[in-house]
Amino acid sequence: MSHPRDVVAPLVPRILVAALRRVPDQDSSVRAALVDTARTAVAASASTSVVLRPLTDALLHEQDQCAQLAAALATATAVEASAVTVDLASYLHRLQPRLLKLLRSNAFKAKPALITLIGACAAMGANAEVTASISCLRDAIASDDWAARKAAAEALAALALEHTDLLTTYKSSCATFFEARRFDKVKVVQESMNQMIEAGKEIPGAEEDECSSALPPASQSQRRSSLTGSASDGRYPAASLGSNSVPLATRKSILSVSRSSLSDVSTSVIFWTFSRYTSCSDFLTFLSEAALLALSIV
Questions:
Q1: What is the pLDDT of residue 242?
Q2: Taking every annotated instance into account, which residue ranges of this chain make up the domain TORTIFOLIA1/SINE1-2 N-terminal (predicted)?
């Protein structure tokens, strides 16, 4: 049975206090119930900070690993369930540096859940939160903990979808690093890595973005189709091909076609041409000029 928000909102702080008493519980069902409570509290509360403040306090001060895990997951769920408001952006702007510092602390054991929270805050936050999170998420990709690698890959995939334009400057520096970790030894991590790499392909490169902004819409579509046809197999990088350049394979095909065309000239035409010249030297001059003309066309 649902109740009006005005009736439930004053009770949200008391509900959270009661729920947070069960944070150290090792039972996964209790942890899942806490996560559901955080999601429901956000929907019932008039202000997001009313819900996030007690959750983050528990996250920053709990020393038990189970408590840290439950608090991080509940906070991440609350952030994801929140509406994008000025109040939320201001709170996340103050919270993000503390989360990044906590991730570097050896006292915090539930790193995968914290990485999930950092990714959620970056996805819901402003540009500053995104740029501050990229380096730590990139480092987490190389972690020895497979759960941390999986959480970082999922967070980066979400950022690639939410903040495509903002991640343009990071694509060239991170693409090779991520590609080398595509084949993770843990299957679930490998799937997350592949999803992250596929999401990263939607991010335009820095040079491509600058060129695209200077072109009219029709030219952009023609340029994309041209790059797809010439560089889709990976042998001819798009950045190395200018608008007037021709790939080596294309030049070879033109040359082969020209040679085959020359070989198909009928002997009657050759004899007719020879009959127009009174001397052999004139005919040799004609052949040399024709050869130079054919080479200039190729």
A1: 38
A2: 5-201
